[in-house]
Design brief:
eight-stranded mixed β-sheet; globular; 2 domains; 18% strand; 15 strands; 14 helices
Length: 395
């Protein structure tokens, strides 16, 4: 009996010793991980651009005594270590995969909707901030009463495709924000509303399933829906549609970390008329192109940049029509797929993106002999961005 007890005690001791070694090994491994990854991240050269997230990553912050005292340095360092962490994409995908296993259906402001559709949440800035943009728009219209002002605020998928949202998703009503903002605009601004035609065609693919942009079809239908208010009569049969890629994995995949195994198709609309042409001048880049589309961009991660090679501070477009109408388009990236449909109706189109444009807008209007102004933004960007106000105020 004593031998059995001794044997049992020996087994318990061995098990306890093994368990302690196991715990110690896990502890050492954990310490090694929390030291190893940040250390390697500091040693390796910084990554400037995340192709998966389609954004510039935080670089090593510049040290100063003032930034230490007011806390800015530590905040920047936290962003830096998060952005430059070795294996960042792996950790993002691991987290979202774990979240899905426990039933969570949103990640980093993106909902995983029906049929593997990714939908960006609507998260507007406080009303007093967007009111400043409204004041600037009204003042600009008063300042330039000789111009035709058109304002087009495009709803995003969270509004038009809300039937694809997860059940009980706590989202704000984007339409209420659009109505409140446009209702307070100066009467000199003609509000263009694409919502009726988008809602009528919501059974079609108006937005990409993996990206926050509308599809070319969404842009084309919206153009037809608002053209009459602009004094334009488009020909519904003016274009031939060509798919240029079936392998577009958009920004929402990168932003959310969801592996949906879904790819989108990007289409371009080519005029049937051989008399139609445009010359696109990328001013800052000192580059010209005879096309609105860049096939080279289809080899890159951000294939939506096939439209006008992405975003630029200033673009000038010369078209084949000679009607003396010159358009100033103030926009975000939603306009990139919309601009080709405007080309047959304006002699020249001057395009600025207020996020990157810092020159005088009044001088630009005079130099380009502008007759019409179109403000075109998607609601998510518009209610989160404050770059339009200083441009309109010519600051």
């Amino acid at each position: 009996m004593r031998k059995q007890d001794n044997h049992r005690e020996h087994d318990q001791y061995t098990h306890s010793l093994f368990y302690k070694k196991y715990i110690n090994l896990l502890g050492l491994l954990f310490i090694a991980i929390i030291i190893f990854f940040p250390l390697v991240s500091l040693i390796l050269p910084d990554t400037k651009l995340s192709e998966n997230e389609n954004r510039i990553l935080t670089q090593f912050p510049r040290f100063s005594v003032d930034s230490i005292i007011d806390g800015r340095y530590m905040k920047k360092m936290q962003k830096y270590t998060a952005d430059q962490l070795v294996g960042r994409n792996f950790w993002i995908y691991t987290k979202t995969s774990t979240d899905r296993l426990i039933g969570k259906n949103s990640s980093n402001g993106v909902y995983l909707g029906k049929n593997s559709t990714l939908i960006e949440n609507f998260d507007p800035l406080p009303a007093d901030i967007t009111d400043q943009t409204k004041i600037a728009l009204n003042a600009f219209a008063e300042k330039h009463p000789d111009l035709n002002h058109f304002f087009l605020l495009v709803p995003t998928a969270i509004s038009i495709n809300n039937d694809k949202l997860p059940a009980y998703a706590p989202v704000l009503k984007q339409n209420d924000y659009i109505n409140e903002f446009t209702g307070g605009l100066n009467e000199k601004l003609t509000v263009l509303d694409p919502r009726p035609i988008l809602e009528q065609n919501q059974d079609q693919l108006l937005y990409y399933k993996t990206d926050h942009h509308w599809t070319t079809l969404g842009a084309w239908l919206s153009f037809q829906g608002v053209a009459n208010a602009m004094g334009i009569k488009p020909d519904p049969d003016a274009y031939t549609v060509y798919p240029v890629t079936h392998a577009f994995s958009g920004a929402l995949v990168s932003k959310s970390g969801y592996l949906t195994f879904t790819a989108d198709t990007i289409e371009v609309y080519i005029p049937k008329s051989e008399d139609t042409y445009s010359v696109v001048n990328y001013v800052e880049e000192q580059k010209k192109s005879p096309s609105f589309y860049s096939s080279q961009q289809l080899k890159e991660k951000d294939k939506y940049a096939v439209f006008l090679e992405g975003n630029h501070p200033l673009i000038k477009i010369k078209n084949s029509v000679a009607n003396g109408k010159n358009l100033l388009l103030i926009k975000d990236s939603y306009a990139n797929a919309f601009i080709p449909f405007l080309a047959p109706f304006y002699s020249e189109i001057t395009v600025i993106d207020p996020r990157y444009y810092y020159d005088s807008i009044d001088s630009l209007i005079t130099d380009a002999q502008i007759t019409d102004v179109l403000y075109l933004f998607n609601a998510n960007t518009f209610f989160r961005d404050t770059s339009l106000e200083p441009v309109l105020n010519d600051e």
